[in-house]
Amino acid sequence: MDFNLLITSYASVFTNLEVILMTLIGALGGILLGAIPGMTATMGVALLVPFSFGMDLIPAVGLLLGIYCGGMYGGSISAILIHTPGTPSAAATLIDGYPMTQKGQAGLALSVAMFASFCGGVIGALIMTFASPVIARAAMRFNSGEMFMLAIFGLSVIIAISGKSVVKGLISGFFGMVLCTVGLDPTNGIARFINRSQVSLYEGFAFIPALIGMFAVAEVIAGVERIVRGEEKHLVSHEKIKRVLPDGGTIKKIWPNILSGAVIGTFVGAIPGAGGDIAVFVSYGANKSFSRHPELWGTGIPNGVASTESANNGCSGGAMIPLLALGVPGDAVTAVLLGAFIMKGIQPGPMMYVTELPTVYGVFAALMLANLAMLLIGCAGVRFFTKIVSVEKTILYPIILVVSLLGAFSINKNVFDIGVCVGFGVFGWLMNKYEFPLSPILLTLILGPMCEQNYVRFMNLNHGDFTQIFHSPIAMAFLSLAVLSILYSVWNQNKINKAEAARKAAEREAAQA
Amino acid sequence: MNKKTSTVAFSNLIGSIIFLAVGIWAYIKTLSFPTVRGSYVQPATFSQIMLIGMLFFSVILLIQSIWNLTHLKQDSPAAEKTASLNVLKDRGVQYALIAILLCVAYVMLFKTFGYVLVSFIVCLAIMILIGKRKWLQMILVSLLVPLCMWLLFYILLKVNIPMGPLTFLRDLVDAVL
């Protein structure tokens, strides 16, 4: 590791006013969106990616990482105040956060959440800084066969993010892979599924408009439907916040939970497919098991909040490890970040550590800055953020629509892209309605081209003999990891489905009684 | 118990049939892709592999759904009520379709009317659609949000956005700056 370059990169990022400003704006946007129930960090990054258009890479990355880190913390605000997690990663925070609010300790819960988020994020960023170059160095020896299997390993994540039905997730995934093949064949330039006159589709569906459509426009259409049916609840918080950071005594009590939560979050985040929503429960479970008073967990103690919030922010550093070192996104948000890198002409992966080392170190520094920005914005605006959870959706949805459609246009300055965005929005609405998950499509839109190009290259180099791939130990290792990941995800999903069925049966019995 | 046609199992059945139909249509389409001499992987090959995967899992979902429909148990997840897509009876779906039509109109009018004007109309129309009636707040939000967004993109990000009849605003901003 080149420590001189690392220090120079940190210094250049921390003294660049544009990067600082963009990261602060990103953190503010992330916290605001994260605090509103139903608005995820993925949607926040998707909405604000077009704003990074025209910026240099590092300010753009600072903006996006600011949203990512801010969104992770923002989700805890509504979880603590109104018992509704703003993002899935804050789902475990409400176990202890909301009882603290009921006991009149909302201020303490929010301050612990913010402090733990900051510490978790910084620890995650440090682990990323030292772990990802090691992985990238190993990945430098990969050829097309190994890269193909790496893409397959990345795609095996589809099972983990499929939700209730693995079969539906796989259908979505394969459909997404087919969507990737629309346009000109990258090897021979043959038009596939289009006419030669459809110039706008030569390079396939533009990723960012498709993404904005599936995650923002689809949400607006579904929101209109929910409001008309009266299913959209208007949640209000009246809590008054007295302190923004925890006192020394509290920090002394919660630091072991912060430390273990951050390490667990980073390692879970580094596994493709296992995002913040899994990390928080793993961390909460582990911390509770090792606690001297497990019976107090769930009754409203700061340790519970600290263990989950440090884990979900630690996840942001962890998820960046496979993204930067292997070019494989760890979750939906990093998939969007990967799209943003590609939009800027940079392909994350092991070669980035050779050709773009200052950029890599700049990204490390930007993640550290994003966590600092989250702390600053969080401290300055915590009283205001408690109000944002009460925002009216009748105002919010139309604003999201006009902002997202402008974002879709601004990428290529092409009205056709707004059409693509609306088309994917309608498609996303229908898919959500019938519980076909959208995240597999997002992942395949990113990994599909990498998968196809390496497959074609491998086959041409080996004269069409696919069995040659079985002679590569690295490729086989990735294949084994993919199989293990699929088996684990199927087993885990079955467990979740069984627990869900048992919970529903218990609810029904209680209702009957 | 829910009517069979309003269960998750039934919607899965419809979903699997749609994906099967799309998959078969797309596979037939790939058969017309030109072939390239000397290449071990033809332009259609990758699409066909993916389509076979999609068709395979669509068939599995179809079989699963038929099995679930014929052996429907009250407490199984397959018997849960599914989302409605009944345009005639469901007000939510009707309004969602109007919102989609507004989005389509947005795309069609974007170049002619420009971003600010078309966004103002669509933003206001959606607020009216979902029952908001605070007129001053609605007009201010519908006007100021697109205007601020345009200014942000035009001044800071240097993105030139169609302005239609309001193109004079661009000249005005240029003159001021």
Structure description:
The complex is a heterodimer of chains A (513) and B (177). Chain A has 513 residues and is mainly alpha-helical. Chain A has 20 helices and two strands. Chain A has a two-stranded antiparallel ribbon. Chain A is globular and about 70 Å long. Helix content of chain B is 67%, strand content 0%. Chain B has six helices and no strands. The relative contact order of chain B is 0.09. Classes of the chains: A mainly alpha (513), B mainly alpha (177). At the A-B interface, helix 9, helix 10, helix 17, helix 18 and helix 19 of A face helix 1, helix 2, helix 3, helix 4 and helix 5 of B.
Amount of helix of chain A: over 70%
Largest inter-chain contact set: A-B, 70 and 75 residues
Radius of gyration of chain B: 25 Å
As a percent range, the share of helical residues of chain B equals: 55-70%
Oligomer: heterodimer
Cα distance, first to last residue of chain A?
65 Å
The low-confidence parts of chain B are none
Number of domains of chain A: 1
Global structural class of chain A: mainly alpha
User: How many E strands of chain A?
Assistant: 2
Bin the strand percentage of chain B.
under 5%
What are the SSEs and their pairings?
The complex is a heterodimer of chains A (513) and B (177).
Chain A lengths: L2 H12 L2 H19 L5 H8 L8 H26 L10 H10 L3 H34 L4 H12 L1 H4 L5 H15 L2 E2 L6 E2 L14 H23 L18 H23 L5 H15 L11 H25 L5 H12 L8 H4 L1 H32 L4 H20 L2 H19 L5 H23 L11 H40 L1
Antiparallel strand pairs in A: 1-2
Helix pairs in contact in A: 1-16, 2-3, 2-4, 2-16, 3-4, 3-10, 3-14, 4-5, 4-6, 4-13, 4-14, 4-16, 5-6, 5-13, 6-11, 6-13, 6-16, 7-19, 7-20, 9-19, 10-17, 10-18, 11-12, 11-13, 12-13, 14-19, 17-18
Chain B lengths: L7 H23 L14 H26 L20 H23 L1 H15 L5 H22 L11 H9 L1
Helix pairs in contact in B: 1-2, 3-4, 4-5
